[in-house]
């Protein structure tokens, strides 16, 4: 009987049931029982079954995060383009193929970076989250710009930044107003003009900083002195633009946050208030995807001329039209979805906010970084490019001046984008591809 009871006590201890008795017939005391309990607990913690269970739990958590991050988007079908692009570079495939695969791989990465920054914002709060979104919202464009700057491809850099602004203001905003107007024909579509006015003012300030170097060059005339004066003017203007953008962030997140509260309320209604993945998981995924974006961006910048020659498409069209469409995939999809649900404040915040970030933050930052790297990056985007930017900003400001929307406004903005795309399609077209019966005369004759 005593032996059987001892077996039961040992079984209870190993199952986690602690039985403390002051004394027994066998001479066990309380201190000895505590030592046995302690050793039993230590054995339980180091149990291989528990270690295996913890590893299984971590593995299951990893696959859950993998499902949310990789498979949680409809653009997941484009993820295989990433390893194919790396393989194309490793096995020295054709450079146009490398460019095309890299371009396709950047689209889902840009969308997932936006998703991850939103997840991190749940933990950091609105202030840090807003700054994080401002920094990472256009991560693809920023990384492509830095690689173009590092490789001294200033024309690709200027084209891609200009194309991002045009894409947000005309394509993203235009299709959002068009789809929202068609989906809500029987509803009055209204939005708060105040935040649209603030973004329009910043865009006009950026336009002034772009036009001054161009007008200065035409007023003074070509020459080495003019070039360096234009460069110095661009650097001074870039510092002013960065100060204006810092003031805009402070204005948006601190002093006049009530102007943007409707935008945040709409997001809270649309999305769950809790994050679907943890903070460190989201942060780790964000770092990993940013590194992959950097790799693919290097491929894109290094092969854009080869793709242009192979496809017979000008570098200006690829940089101004194709690259921004890929980089703005996340903004484009999100803005249209909110417009369908008649939440135009959010759609305007996405499109105008992204354009403002590029114009007032990314562009002057590239000028300052080029200044540090001794690269002559300025704000003179040439006459055709600056004129397209000017008319885009003016048309957008006029479109948003009355606080109401209908599908016709979206039609006009979208058609403006088509016209600009056609302009850069024929811009700098190779002479041997022009086949007409009569001798060619005009601006493209040279």
The number of helical segments is 17
H-E order: HHHHHHHHEHHHHHHHHEH
CATH topology: A middle domain of Talin 1
Secondary-structure arrangement, i.e. CATH architecture: Up-down Bundle
Mean pLDDT, as a whole number?
Answer: 77
What is the CATH class designation?
Answer: Mainly Alpha
Structural class: mainly alpha
CATH superfamily: NCX, central ion-binding region
Structurally, the number of domains stands at 1
How would a crystallographer describe the biggest sheet? 2 strands, antiparallel
Keywords: Antiport, Calcium, Calcium transport, Ion transport, Membrane, Transmembrane, Transmembrane helix, Transport, Vacuole
Function: Vacuolar cation/proton exchanger (CAX). Translocates Ca(2+) and other metal ions into vacuoles using the proton gradient formed by H(+)-ATPase and H(+)-pyrophosphatase.
Family: Belongs to the Ca(2+):cation antiporter (CaCA) (TC 2.A.19) family. Cation/proton exchanger (CAX) subfamily.
Pfam families: Na_Ca_ex (PF01699)
